[in-house]
Amino acid sequence: MDAEVRLLVAILDAAYDRKSWHGANLRGAIRGVTARQAAWRPSRNRHNISELVVHAAYWKYAVFRRLSGAARGSFPLKGSNWFARENSSTSTWRKDVALLDEMHRSLRAAVTRLSAGDLAHTPRGSKVSTFAILSGVAAHDLYHAGQVQLLKKLQK
User: How does residue 126 score in pLDDT terms, banded at 50, 70 and 90?
Assistant: First the structure.
């Protein structure tokens, strides 16, 4: 694996589930969250933790699909971007977290197959480079990790 790709994988992992200097990453933020906590909303028409998790999974999938050429509509849930999650059971919450893990693994595997030259390429239909898209995935994970942390604090 090219050094640039290896560094980008490390950034993706630090934002998702590896120890990092900044505190909680996305996976760390949801560690120990119960289904009840995940379904709680600060007010009507605001997202809950479950919805943030599935949203993050969807965008990992969308970037994976762009890199791999996977078929549109292959995300396991119907819809795109935001998915309503109301009063989810423990089973549903666990499946949502497993989906997030699966989408991260798929994206990570696709990134490891890239070359340094691929990172500079702007994919068809995009306005930014593959590097910008992938560094954006890491930023997206950390943004939503912060939201999860805030939602947990608001529940107390």
Answer: confident
Please tell me the class of the 3-155 domain.
mainly alpha
Read off the tokens for 33: 């969250």
Burial of residue 116 (number of CB atoms within 10 Å: 0-12, 13-18, 19+)? middle
pTM over 0.85: yes
- Determine the pLDDT at residue 86: 82
Q: Contact 49/96 with Cβ under 8 angstroms?
A: no
Domain ranges of the chain: 3-155
% of the chain with per-residue pLDDT over 70? 100
Residue 143 identity (one-letter amino acid): Y
d(CA 156, CA 152): 7
DSSP at 127:
S
**Average pLDDT in the chain:** 94
Query: How is 115-142 classified by DSSP, letter by letter?
Result: -HHHHH---TT-SS-HHHHHHHHHHHHH
